[in-house]
Amino acid sequence: MRLPDSQLAVLDAANTTDEPTVDRLADETGLKSASVTGAAFDLRDEGLVSVEETTDTDAELTDEAHEYLDDGLPEIRLYRAAIDAGADDEPVSMGQLIGASGLGGPQVDIALSNFARKGYGVIDSGDVTADPDADPDVDPEQAALESLAAGDSVDDTDLLDQLERRELIVQSERTVRTIQPTDEGTAALEAGIEVAETVDALTPEMLTSGEWEDVEFTEYNVEADAPRVEGGRKHILRQTSDRVKDVLVGMGFKEMDGPHADADFWINDCLFMPQDHPARTHWDRFALDVPGIQDLPDQLVDRVESAHRNGVGDDGEGYHSPWSRDFAEAVALRGHTTSLSMRYLSGFAGADIDPPQRYFSVEKVYRNDTLDPTHLLEFFQIEGWVMAEDLSVRDLMGTFEEFYKQFGITDIQFKPHYNPYTEPSFELFGTHPTTGELVEIGNSGMFRPEVLEPLGIECDVMAWGLALERLLMLMYGFEDIRDVHGTLCDLELLRETEVVY
Ligand SMILES: N[C@@H](Cc1ccccc1)C(=O)O
Questions:
Q1: Does ligand 1 come within 6 angstroms of the Cβ of 72?
Q2: Are the CB atoms for 468 and 244 separated by under 8 Å?
Q3: Is residue 337 within 8 Å of 365, Cβ to Cβ?
Q4: Per the record's keyword annotation, is Nucleotide-binding included, yes or no (predicted)?
Q5: Does residue 274 lie within any of the structural domains?
Q6: Quick check: bond before 424 cis, omega within 30?
Q7: Do residues 68 and 211 share a domain?
Q8: How many Å lie between the centroid of ligand 1 and the Cα of residue 327?
Q9: Which residue among 224, 280, 348, 410 has the highest number of C-beta atoms inside a 10 angstrom radius?
């Protein structure tokens, strides 16, 4: 019998190795695991080996677990401190024990909940009693962590699941293949097998020399494990933004666009934001050191200034605070895309604004915020407005319900809010799918007369700004916005997440 050398090596090693798994055979033969698997399938097709598949669970320790390897699980540290303080005799205050144990931060809660769960003692109105018979030296969770750290396996699946719930390990499943020679395989080995040279790639030289006619080609193995190729793909934020645009277009909206850096007039003045409003100070705004934008529509500027100074209508009240045209012309990065809504509603953008109208944008905005799990310095806003006669808050809520439903979000909550430019105003909240926490996802309201009158609009306009990244959080369950942006991003999440249409 003749076999390609890799198959012969695998058959030979499988015959002499205890527990001939693919990994072991790869060690024995010096072949890559994928080649061993490939050879094994070929040998199986020849009836020379059997391939048995089982799934094995790998458990990997998290960083938190590594900390506990040295110091002991927090509940064990608490128990030791309790014994040292004599809590097996009489109750000792929790505060004292926590101090003595050196536990801090989230570890305190972890210690307390697991202490009771594992029967190390009882905690009652702030006092701790320790069970003298408990023995932390045989704590199964600690022992399991130590075994795993030493590279040994732990068979108790309940225990492993418990450690996973505590986020001390991450379990993953993999297929383990065991390759056993059949009787035919052993017989063939005993009878002696010749090496058949096979060629796995055709070269130009082989073609010109004609050698290709005489060689034996390696069989194509479509079942072999192949390396995973990470191709480029569209970012989930972009994919979701495209989806949002489709949904809004489907709801009859037209798209707005306009400058990222704009005159404060469009960003704030038109919105009846007083010029001394905190959001307009240099703390919050990304001001640009460039000449102001002078070609603002003069009549509109006058009407806006008048609304700021004197209010609108017969009994209107303005701000009686300073207003300067220079500030209105000053350029900053837009902190919201409501600047686009103002450009469109004023007619300045050149689009049709006879009611009824609906417009939207999904565009970037810039805020001088502090970076944290829910805030970025630049993010995408889903801006929108509807202009029509007799709009009510019901229309606003109904629009959001219809919109968010397209993304599987059906439990929107509304809370009253304040914006200088809308009355009434509502903040929108959704429930985070994994933490269950309420997450603010947007801000909305009906534009006030102080905004609409200078723009010359006589009907109602309802409007909103929703955060695209927060929508993404609710859809895909990540907790830190930095998982999808920047150097801390979670590549696994970005690679695996399917944006479902
Ligand atoms: N501009 C508001 C959103 C909003 C737009 C229009 C009306 C009401 C609210 C924000 O950024 O939070």
A1: no
A2: yes
A3: yes
A4: yes
A5: no
A6: yes
A7: no
A8: 21
A9: 280
**ipTM confidence:** 0.98
Tell me if 339 CB under 6 Å of ligand 1. no
pTM above 0.95, yes or no: no
| Residue with tokens 């609304």, as numbered in its chain | 307
How far, in Å, CA of 151 to CA of 143, rounded? 13
Contact between 420 and 267 under an 8 Å Cβ cutoff? The reply is: no
- Whether residues 38 and 101 fall in one domain: no
348 lies in the same domain as 478 = yes
Number of other residues whose CB lies within 10 A of the CB of residue 420: 17
Q: From ligand 1's centre to the CA of 360, what distance in Å? A: 12
What does the pLDDT profile of the chain (501 residues) look like in tens digits? 888 888 999 999 999 999 999 999 999 999 998 889 999 999 999 999 999 999 888 889 999 999 999 889 999 999 999 999 999 999 999 889 998 988 988 899 999 989 999 999 999 888 999 999 999 999 999 999 999 999 888 889 999 999 999 999 999 888 899 999 999 999 999 999 988 877 888 999 999 999 888 888 877 778 777 788 888 889 999 999 999 999 999 999 999 999 999 999 999 999 999 998 888 887 788 999 999 999 999 999 999 999 999 999 887 788 888 899 999 999 999 999 999 999 999 999 999 889 999 999 999 999 988 888 888 889 999 999 999 999 999 999 999 999 999 999 999 999 999 999 999 999 999 999 999 999 999 999 999 999 999 999 999 999 999 999 999 999 999 989 999 988 889 988 898 888 875
Among 493, 497, 477, which Cα is nearest to 485's? Answer: 493
Q: Are residues 146 and 208 in the same domain?
A: no
Q: Which atom of ligand 1 is nearest to the CA of 462?
A: 7
In a domain, 190, yes or no: yes
Residues 370 and 490 in one domain: yes
Do residues 160 and 248 share a domain?
A: no
Name beta bridge partners: 378.
366
Q: Whose CA is nearest to atom 2 of ligand 1?
A: 465
